[in-house]
Amino acid sequence: MTDQTTILAQWTIIPTTPPQPSRHCPGCAQPRHFASSGRVRLNANGKRLDAWLIYKCIRCGQTWNRPIMQRRPVGQISVADLQAMQQSSPRWVRVHEFDTTGLKEHCAQIRHLPDVAIIREIRGPTPRDWSGIRLRIGCALPTGLRLDRVLCEGWKLPRSQLQRLVKQGIITVRTGAGNPLKRPLDGAASVEVMAAGLGDQMRQKLLAGLSDRPGP
Fold first, then answer.
1. Strand 116-122 relative to strand 171-173, pairing
2. CA 171, CA 18: separation in Å to the nearest integer?
3. How much is the pTM?
4. What are 178-201's pLDDT values in tens digits?
5. Which residues contact 208 (CB under 8 A, 6 or more apart)?
6. Helix/strand/coil (H, E, C) string of 45-59?
7. In what order do the strands lie in the sheet with 116-122?
8. Are the beta carbons of 52 and 67 closer than 8 angstroms?
């Protein structure tokens, strides 16, 4: 679908709640999920620095200091990173909160919460008699959410309805092998919609869900 009757759209997925590692909580005496406090703890030992991101048990508040750097020579740390850690900069902290690779070094399980914001936009003209949609979905941070869940949330569709549209070949995913709808969206995906076979109501619903701006 590359002709002038194809609508080009972009969804940007922004997770709003950081993933929560599961660890043994001394206060609860059993495994619990821990949430980031957004605060960084530093300890200087001579010319070396230790840094931790402080997490708290969501049940009792017991803290866990997640190692970010250990015995790092201060001379190897950029001024910007050092200031960000000293100020617990939200932007700097957010990058490390969503570093699931680093989290997995300290815990076996990570819970991704389904809290995301979706920024929708249509890029180009919207022909009245459109024949298809090419939708690109991207996320800068790992969400842990399956692509089918993202599509259902973005278009406000029941999963059964989405599955029916996929089975009919009206919606197809051009990303990866196997069934990409069941894989977590941790990068980018390309979704195509064919207008043929769509009823007027569904046609309008899919079109309206492409952009945050109201239609004409």
1. unpaired
2. 30
3. 0.81
4. 678 888 887 889 999 999 989 999
5. 215
6. ECCEEEEEEEEEECC
7. 116-122, 6-15, 132-139, 188-194, 171-173
8. yes
Enumerate residues 6+ apart whose C-beta is below 8 A from 37.
54, 55, 56, 63
Q: How far apart are CA 46 and CA 32, in angstroms?
A: 35
DSSP 66-129: EEEEEEEEGGGS-HHHHHHHHTT-HHHHHHHHT-HHHHTTT-SEEEPP--EEEEEEE-S---TT
Q: Which stretches of the chain drop beneath a pLDDT of 70?
A: 1-3, 175-178, 214-216
Q: Which residues contact 167 (CB under 8 A, 6 or more apart)?
A: none
Residues 59-83: tens digit of each pLDDT = 999 999 999 999 999 999 999 999 9
| Contacts for 169 with CB less than 8 Å, ≥ 6 apart | 194
| pLDDT for position 2 | 52
DSSP 180: G
